[in-house]
Design a protein that fits this description.
By secondary structure, the protein is α/β, with parallel strands linked by helices. The protein is built from four helices and seven strands, in the order βαβαββααβββ. A hairpin with a 4-residue loop joins strand 3 (68-72) and strand 4 (77-82).
């Protein structure tokens, strides 16, 4: 997968396919930092990652109200976090998010722009809405 170029999808299924292709390149210790507006496909992207890691994509749901979902796959354990309701570094600290980021195998964080620092071994995944089902996805290594 060429990370230098944006990828374009025309359906949720194609967005999942991009994520599954990315999953094939992962070691299982990365931090995947998802950014995008509401409805841009962040949870859909996670569903594709879990599928690509050999897990059950039907288990994937938005963790907005529970903060973290954990999915065990044959390759790694995925910690799927949603920071939408956490506004400050103190909120992240008291919720245990920063500690979990250090301990988790593969962490996937929705609304990752709310993190006070970028974790090591991170990839930014930016999802942009182009139409009802069309998305532009840009994947890049965090600096």
């Amino acid at each position: 997968m060429d990370l230098r170029q944006p990828l374009y999808t025309r359906s949720p299924e194609e967005t999942e396919q991009v994520a599954a292709a990315l999953a094939a390149t992962l070691t299982g210790t990365e931090r995947i930092l998802l950014v995008g507006d509401l409805g841009s496909g962040k949870t859909t992207f996670v569903r594709g990652l879990v599928r690509g890691l050999g897990g059950d994509p039907r288990q994937v749901a938005s963790p907005t109200f529970v903060l973290v979902h954990i999915y065990v796959t044959p390759r790694t354990t995925v910690y799927h976090m949603d920071l939408y309701r956490l506004d400050t570094a103190a909120d992240l600290e008291s919720a245990g998010v920063l500690e979990l980021l250090e301990e988790a195998d593969l962490a996937v964080i929705e609304w990752a722009e709310r993190l006070p620092v970028v974790p090591v071994n991170s990839l930014w995944v930016e999802l942009h809405i182009l139409g009802d089902t069309e998305r532009r996805i840009r994947i890049r290594k965090a600096e």
